[in-house]
Amino acid sequence: MKYFLALCGLITTIMATGQTPQGTLFGGFESNSQWLLDDFDLKVSESEPGFIAPEDAFRANSYFQLNYNIGEFTAGVQYESYMPSALLGFSPTFDNQSGVATYYLNFKHDQLDLTAGYFYEQFGNGLILRGWEDRQLGINSAFQGIRAKFNPTDYFAFTGLIGQQRNGFELSEGVVNAFDLNFDLGQKFQWSQIDLRMGGSYVNRFQDRGTNSAIPTNVAAYSGRIDWGIGQFYGGIEAIKKDPDVIANEGTLVSNRLYDGTALQANIGFSKKGLGASATFRRLENFSFYSDRLAEGNQFNQELINYTPALTKQQDYLLTNIYVYNAQPRLITDPLDQRAGEVGLQSDIFLSFPKKSALGKVGTKIAANFSYWAGLDATFYEDQSYDVEFIGKGNRYFRDINAEIKNRWGKSFNSVLTYQNIIADKGVVLGGPLGSQGDIKASIIVAEGTYKLSKGRSIRGVVQYLSTEQDRKNWSGAVVEYNFNAKWAVYAADAYNHGGEGKIHYYNTGGSYTKGRTRFAMNYGRQRGGLICVGGVCRFVPENNGFSMNLNVTF
Amino acid sequence: MKHLFYFSFFLISFGVSAQDLLPDVALKTLDGTNTSLSEASATQSLTVISLWATWCVPCIKELDAISEVYQDWQDETNVSLIAVSIDDARTVKRVKPMINGKGWDYTILLDTNNDVKRALGAATVPLTILVKDGVIVYRHSGYAPGAEDELYEEILAQAD
How many percent of chain B have pLDDT more than 90? Predict the structure, then answer.
């Protein structure tokens, strides 16, 4: 807080003396708040009490970011406030906290880019290192330290960094030092037909081991990757090996036994006008990498050095978002729930038809997606060691087949039809051990239509149906949205679980106003409990009811 | 908390008069070559930059809608559109097949660790900005059908 006031004071001084014209000030303010309300009918069975609002019924997460650029220098701060508590379902490390969360000073000159303070970074796919921010998920894994980027030529790039990862308003115990090299061979040799790039990364975590000399202080991971493109085909492969390290669960070491980890990801694609296809394979074995060895598997995704998202299609309709996959990279040796990682693939195809063809006249665009993810086929022994197949026949965790057809029926009406068929392991979706609780098999149909009226007004309607014999049985859903113009919109939505025990309506209504730099949205309604997933990372949100408000202003 | 609101208000009121220079952030082309936001938009006097993602339904609706009239826009105003994908490692592999499958003619750039998104202060996508000679002259977030007409009016006004 002191820093923040000092900074504001400084800016005021600069402004008052009118010395800003050379520099640029930019930043933004975002506030997401909720006011939780008691809802005694929000329960699956009679014996439950329903939703009782916690003592801190009003909660807000606010972010204020300010940057100042002058010539080759840019500096910035981010102030965050979670008062009196963070939004429901966020890591409690944020509760009742406020203050300067990140700050940086950056210098950029020709081939050199230097940053001191907090910075975000990603090597390759992020499979080995990614420091990032997602405010909806409560993730901010920026590193605090020093980073240097050096690009002496247009075909060679180097990044080196050392720092500690952010953990709430504090820093993680481990110190990460890492570097990344990239060569663009296609650029270097001026190949016109072939695109070929190679890269390598090294990421090391140093953490004091106290009195336990059986565990390593340094754990490093090494990665190599190649990306290529020839004509309409392209692809890439990345392989990573991680040094032997202990595994931990719920903040304590499982044993002193060390296990190494590996990751392999390969993708291939084809793309030409009107047709695109791609497939990605990934295998993760004991591949979670945290900046504190004891943070492994924490449910709030804090202190993660690398990024292993679920490689499945990201859905965003009400009912297609109930059964979602969450990547399972961990090694767990507990006799009740043994697993060594995951293996699987995802593929996509996109088609559009020439404008003159019968299907093209109505603007037909088709997208289909398939994914299959399974646990690694492993055999565990009494001494907690294990043998594992490269692919094998592990437990199926998730299988998804989905397709959507988009059409444009004249100038004012367009439609989207979506079908999805899912098989999800109950452990993945509902929690608990994987592979032993049985599956949820569900089919979902969604029909969406948008009708454009005059003067920027439009109306959108969505109806959806989910059918399953398991879990909470069948659901129906509907959304109606009306746009008065590009600035004002209102909506009402309901997801109705009529097949389950509780017969619950998850109703929601709200509106938003957007103009230039400002967006304000307000919602009222019930939140379905479960995983809220953004970008393949999920956090658990309990069922709740209340108002929520979002304000975002940029300048 | 009180301080926060006070200062936000104070800075926002100042912010309106701040210069709207396009931040110079590094990002990648679809082929993996390094470029920057200002470099990419320097070829044309007028550039629309649209932040989108493969998983964002309104973003795709917006780009589909503009795609229908993009040729006319270019002929009449010489405007170009850069579609900056904020897809991260989870979905970025879907960008290339999707844009061709859709038949879009935009310049596509990748912002896989969301540096551009942060620099522009975009809490949500889509975010559409109009840049004239390196200065942001119009911005709009979210998409409602017909918003592309409003954007085009703005382009016409700036093209003169």
Answer: 35
Half-sphere exposure of A48 (CA within 13 A, CB side): 13
Distance CA A233, CA B96 (A): 11
DSSP state of A339: B
To the nearest whole Å, the CA of A23 is away from the closest chain B CA by 9
What is the least distance, in Å, from the CA of B90 to any CA of chain A?
6
CA distance B95 to A216: 40
Give A267's contacts in chain B (Cβ within 8 Å). Answer: 93
Is the N-terminal amide bond of A542 cis, ω within 30° of 0?
A: no
Strand runs labelled E in B1-149: 26-29, 34-36, 46-52, 80-85, 107-110, 127-132, 135-141
pTM, two decimals, is: 0.89
Question: In Å, what is the CA distance from A196 to each residue of A159, A193, A239, A518?
Answer: 20, 10, 17, 43
Cβ neighbours of B27 in A, within 8 Å: none
DSSP, residue by residue, A265-294:
EEEEEEEETTEEEEEEEEEEES---BSSGG
The mean of the pLDDT values for chain A is 91
Across B124-151, average pLDDT: 88
Average pLDDT, integer, range A382-395 = 94
Q: What confidence tier does B3 reach under pLDDT thresholds 50, 70, 90?
A: low
Instruction: State whether residue A552 sits within 8 Å of chain B by CB.
Output: yes
Q: What is the DSSP string of A348-367?
A: EEEEE--TTSHHHHTT-EEE
Which one of A125, A130, A456 has the shortest CB-CB distance to B146? Answer: A456
Q: Does A486 touch chain B (CB under 8 A)?
A: yes
Residue with token string 């709207």: B20
How far is residue A521's CA from residue A59's CA, in Å, rounded to a whole number? 16
Check if A66 contacts B (Cβ < 8 Å).
yes
Cβ-contact A525, A545 below 8 angstroms: yes
The residue-averaged pLDDT of B31-42 equals 86
A235 touches chain B (CB under 8 A): no
Tell whether the model's pLDDT for residue B17 goes beyond 80.
Answer: no
Minimum distance, in Å, between the CA of residue B44 and any CA atom of chain A: 23
| In the predicted structure, residue A391 carries a pLDDT above the cut 80 | yes
Using one digit for the tens of pLDDT, what is the confidence trace for A80-134? 999 889 999 898 889 999 999 999 999 999 899 999 999 999 998 899 999 999 9
Q: At what angle do helices B147-159 and B57-77 cross, to 10 degrees?
A: 30
pLDDT digits (tens, 9 = 90+) for A305-343: 999 999 999 888 999 999 999 999 999 999 999 999 999
Is the CB of B3 less than 8 angstroms away from the CB of A270?
A: no
Query: In chain A, which residue's Cα lies nearest the Cα of B54?
Result: A314
A349 touches chain B (CB under 8 A): yes
pLDDT confidence of B4, banded at 50, 70, 90?
A: low
Give the separation between CA A220 and CA A242, rounded to whole angstroms: 6
Measured distance CA(A84)–CA(A72) in Å, rounded: 39
Are A310 and B90 an interchain contact pair (Cβ–Cβ within 8 Å)? Answer: yes
Minimal Cα distance from B111: which residue of A? A122
- Give the pLDDT of residue B159: 86
Q: Which pLDDT score, from 0 to 100, does residue A535 have? A: 57
Write out chain B residues lying below 8 Å of A315, CB-based: 55
